[in-house]
Design goal:
- By secondary structure, this protein is α+β, with helices and mostly antiparallel strands.
- It folds into two domains: 2-91; 110-337, BirA Bifunctional Protein, domain 2, CATH 3.30.930.10.
- It is 40% helix and 19% strand.
- It is built from eleven helices and nine strands.
- A seven-stranded mixed β-sheet has the order 1-4-5-9-8-7-6, with helices on both faces. Strands 2-3 form a two-stranded antiparallel ribbon.
- A hairpin with a 2-residue loop joins strand 6 (244-251) and strand 7 (254-263).
- It is elongated and about 120 Å long.
- The chain starts with a helix and ends with a helix.
- 25% of the residues are buried.
- Belongs to the class-II aminoacyl-tRNA synthetase family. Phe-tRNA synthetase alpha subunit type 1 subfamily.
- It catalyses: tRNA(Phe) + L-phenylalanine + ATP = L-phenylalanyl-tRNA(Phe) + AMP + diphosphate + H(+).
- It is found in: Cytoplasm.
- One of its GO terms (biological process) is phenylalanyl-tRNA aminoacylation.
Length: 340
């Protein structure tokens, strides 16, 4: 009777395995036959009812049946896995003749391109790039730069004040003051960064923009050093044929002060629409560091002198790439930015 039961289990196992079409179903069949509560396991539990003299023979048949079922299961698993893989390969086939998907990779913003070019020029002259806080003390932003309390620039209509002593910096000049206070002379530095002013947004103004300010402090620095440095800067940035012109001006933190123009790189100084027929384009302000500014920062103006200059990063980008509206730099229009 035990032999008949084993034979029936074997035939039933073969039928189920032959009919299965999935690995999940095959696993269920294995559990149903060989698991803790499986049919073959139940047979083994009934061995105690077999006559002692028949147990070796029946035990051998049970083992042979188990091995045969495990072999059938393994063969079926291999065949099903192979078929599944073949179907998967057909479904995921790649047509190598199709055009590849374009990888859209971003690139540097026009402001970043212009800034890196300016930094490269000045680093090549021996300057270091220094940064400072955007939230600044009124002292560093105004007072230490010889801008008194009643100066128009300190009006709340022009400056974003957090309280009466803290504000959003209106220029990167405070970085220069902090550098002078350290007392590590001589100084050759540029200070690029974001600045803030209470301006209305239009084609040439924004409440948030960028400046690059530079400064040199050393013994025997003269206005000739300033002119030579900025002339070389203009040539490197706009071309070897670029000429510069200095016009007298007034800044509280420099004396004497000037504004610098460069020959229009569009027409070479002849006059065109780009330079409004003048042949010159204003680009930056500059001057010799005021003795009072040196003294407030702990530097003896009798022994040291220096020059400083400041230029708007957006202005350089607008001029260099012939952009007529500053707002284009901040609108994140991919059609515009892809041109650079």
């Amino acid at each position: 009777m035990m032999k008949e039961r084993l034979k029936k289990i074997m035939e039933n196992a073969r039928t189920q395995i032959d009919e299965t079409d999935s690995l999940e179903r095959l696993n269920e069949i294995k559990v149903g036959l060989l698991g803790k509560k499986g049919e073959l396991t139940e047979v083994l539990k009934g061995m105690k009812d077999v006559a002692p003299e028949e147990r070796p023979q029946v035990g051998q048949i049970v083992n042979e049946t188990r091995q045969a079922i495990e072999e059938m299961l393994e063969n079926a698993r291999t065949d099903l896995a192979k078929k599944k893989r073949e179907l998967q390969m057909k479904a995921e086939v790649i047509d190598v003749t199709l055009p590849a998907r374009k990888n859209n990779v971003g690139h540097r913003h026009p402001n970043t391109i212009a800034l890196e070019e300016v930094e490269k020029i000045f680093v090549g002259m021996g300057y270091e790039v220094v940064e400072g806080p955007e939230v600044e003390y009124d002292y560093y932003n105004f007072e230490a730069l010889n801008i008194p309390a009643n100066h128009p620039a300190k009006d709340e209509q022009d400056t974003f004040y957090i309280n009466d002593k803290i504000l959003l910096r209106t220029q990167t000049s405070p970085v220069q003051v902090r550098q002078m206070e350290r007392g590590h002379l001589p100084i050759r530095m540029i200070a690029p960064g974001r600045v803030f002013r209470a301006d209305e947004v239009d084609a040439t103004h924004s409440p948030s923009f960028h400046q690059i300010e530079g400064m040199v402090i050393d013994k025997n620095i003269t206005f000739a050093d300033l002119k030579g440095t900025l002339q070389e800067f203009a040539r490197e940035l706009f071309g070897e044929d670029t000429k510069v012109k200095f016009r007298p001006h007034h800044f509280p933190f420099t004396e004497p002060s000037a504004e610098m123009d460069v020959t229009c790189f569009k027409c070479g100084g002849k006059g065109c629409r780009f330079c409004k027929g003048e042949g010159w384009i204003e680009i930056l302000g500059c001057g010799m560091v005021h003795p009072k500014v040196l003294k407030m920062s702990g530097i003896d103006p009798e022994e040291y002198s220096g020059f400083a200059f400041g230029v708007g990063l957006e202005r350089i980008a607008l001029l260099k790439y012939e952009i007529d509206d500053m707002r284009l730099l901040y609108e994140n229009d991919a059609r515009f930015l892809k041109q650079f």
